[in-house]
Every structure is written in structure tokens, then in C-alpha cells.
Amino acid sequence: DAGVTQSPTHLIKTRGQHVTLRCSPISGHKSVSWYQQVLGQGPQFIFQYYEKEERGRGNFPDRFSARQFPNYSSELNVNALLLGDSALYLCASSRDLTEAFFGQGTRLTVV
Amino acid sequence: EDKVVQSPLSLVVHEGDTVTLNCSYEVTNFRSLLWYKQEKKAPTFLFMLTSSGIEKKSGRLSSILDKKELFSILNITATQTGDSAIYLCAVEGSARQLTFGSGTQLTVLP
To answer: Is A48 close to B41, i.e. CB distance below 8 A?
Structure first.
């Protein structure tokens, strides 16, 4: 089985732009979560979706949004990018809501 | 607010040494504690612990949870250079989301 796949792997954007990150979960997994990891810190929870419904939201501004599609893939959108949004964005999938498996991440650089 | 503190922040050892990584936590309605290894990008799953006092073991790695004292340890015996990585501890509480610590950067020298 393929693991969690994320695209793109790297991305450079300018301040004020918008970005969309994509994630395909492991086959059979219905839950997708998004995390932001800045250098030197552990991943920080952004969103969790289960069966296409938002089940949790971390302490992030409304510029961050996400959705989950009928095939359980997911998108994370960030509007009005700031320099501080530069980070590794990780997607994790799980069969129900536990034991998350992570993708390789998208490295976002905002200049 | 759920909180996870890992120590030490970094550790440098030589091949063959044994290391112990620490994780203490505060969480509302504890469900599980997880350990991950992060080498470049994707954290890879090591262990999930839900019960106190039961050691989980995988090769040279082992972990145990103390729910009374609210901590867990990850042991690595006979370390190898391939063990060099960031080790992350996370807890899952009532919100069903993972709260991570800052990680321990382990460097194993040949």
C-alpha cells in the first residue's frame, strides 16, 4: 500500500499570495490531520477531518482553511501568506482518529 | 491546554551507548502517548502507549508509560549512527488531536 502522499514537496511563495497543499491518505484511512512544523519545534496541530467533517481546529488564524473530499483526500489552503507561515506542513492519516501516519510534508517558503 | 515537555533537547553519544529519552505531559482526558522518529521530513511511527507499566519493544527500542507520574521514556540500546534523528513524543487527549513536544535531537557518532 502507498503511504500518505503530499504535493508539492517544495513551494516558494511571495507574501500576500495564496497556497493550496494537497494530501492523499493511506487507502482505507478516513481521517486526515494537518500539522505545521517550524524549525526546531514539534509539529503543531492545525485541522483534523474525519469522514469529510471538521473534527478539530488548532489555534491558527482564519487565513488557514481545509477540506476533505469524498475520496478522503484533503487540501489545506492558506491565504494572505506571511513570512511566519514558512514551515514544513505535514499531513497525517489514520483509520479512525488514532495512530497517525505522516506524509513526507510540503516545505513552504514565503519570501 | 495540553502540554508535552521532552528532555534532553539534544544528546550526543557514541555508537554502542544506551540512551534514555524523557517525555512528561499534561493532557485533558488522556487517550494515548505516541513516539515518532523524524529523520528528514516525515515522522515515522514507533510506539503507541495507552496503559501504565507495560513495556513496548521493537528491536533495540523500548518504551514505557507511567500514567500516575505523567511521563514516558524511550530507551535505545546499542545505538547506531542510523539512530541519529529527532525523536518526538505526542499525546492524544479528549480533543482527539496530537500535541507534540519539541523533540530530542539525538546524534550518534561512529
So the answer is: no
